Amino acid sequence: MKLLVTGGAGYVGSVVASQLVEAGHETVVLDDLSKGHKEAVPEGARLVEGSLLDEAFVRETLARGFDGVLHFAALSLVAESVEEPERYYRNNVGGALNLLGAMGEAGVGRLVFSSTAAVYGEPGEVPIPETAPTGPTNPYGSSKLAVDRLIGHVAEARGLAATSLRYFNVAGASGRFGEDHHPETHLIPIVLQAAAGTRESVKIFGTDYPTRDGTAVRDYVHIEDLGRAHQLALEASEPGEHRVYNLGNGSGFSVLQVVEAARSVTGEDIRTEEAPRRAGDPPELVASSDAIRADLGWRPEKPGLEAMISDAWAWMQEHPDGYE
Ligand code: UFG
Question: Domain 172-219+250-318: what homologous superfamily?
Answer without folding.
Answer: UDP-galactose 4-epimerase, domain 1 (3.90.25.10)
